[in-house]
Amino acid sequence: MTGHAATDGPERPLRLHGPEASEALGAALARVARVGDVIALSGPLGAGKTSIARGLLAALGLAGEAPSPSFAIVQPYAPPETELPVLHVDLYRIDDVAEVDELGLDDARDDSVLIVEWPERLGAEYWRDALWLTLAVADDGARALTAQVPAAWEDRWPPT
């Protein structure tokens, strides 16, 4: 994976101040997302992963707030509910990689955008072509976001 950080200055992570900024990033991602893309969202509980996903889904036309797929594991969205078919995936409760095979994510990539929370549950190799966004909570409460950007995203990251 080609890796470089999303920056707002030399060697500094992008800073997101509040849930609105995370949702705005999601909306910007929606403008450049394509069927077949995987957006991997990594970080601790409460870091803003679901806020980014909600911003993306809202920008694609979802009315109302998207629920966290923590218990469903996969929450599908499709036109006319959203402009593009999207699978919002939360792997937090996955303990065994074999469980993921049952979800059919590899096949779903052919006709959907995948937003995957807790992608590290399967390891980086499973998502080698994903736009991998890692969030950390800074001392001031802002979110520090770094990105590993694969070749397919180099002309789309950072989104504007």
SSE arrangement:
Blueprint (H helix, E strand, L loop, with lengths): L13 E3 L2 H14 L5 E5 L6 H11 L14 E4 L8 E5 L6 H5 L3 H4 L4 E5 L13 E7 L5 E6 L12
Parallel strand pairs: 2-5, 2-6, 4-5
Antiparallel strand pairs: 1-7, 3-4, 6-7
Helix pairs in contact: 1-2
Pfam families: TsaE (PF02367)
Subcellular location: Cytoplasm
Family: Belongs to the TsaE family.
Tell me about this structure:
- Helix content is 21%, strand content 22%.
- Strand 6 and strand 7 (143-148) form a beta hairpin.
- It has four helices and seven strands.
- The chain has a seven-stranded mixed beta sheet with strand order 1-7-6-2-5-4-3.
- The chain has a single domain (16-153), classed as Rossmann fold (3-Layer(aba) Sandwich), CATH 3.40.50.
- It has 160 residues and is of the alpha/beta class.
- The two termini are 22 Å apart.
- It is globular, with a radius of gyration of 15 Å.
- Its main location: cytoplasm.
- This is tRNA threonylcarbamoyladenosine biosynthesis protein TsaE.
- Pfam families: TsaE.
- It is found in: Cytoplasm.
Concise description?
The protein has 160 residues and is an alpha/beta fold.
Features:
alpha/beta, Rossmann fold, disordered N terminus, P-loop_NTPase, ATP-binding
- The appropriate CATH architecture is 3-Layer(aba) Sandwich
Q: What characteristic shape results from the CA principal axes?
A: globular
Given as residue ranges, the uncertain stretches (5+ residues, pLDDT < 50) are 1-11
What would CATH call the homologous superfamily?
P-loop containing nucleotide triphosphate hydrolases
What do the pLDDT scores average to? Answer: 87
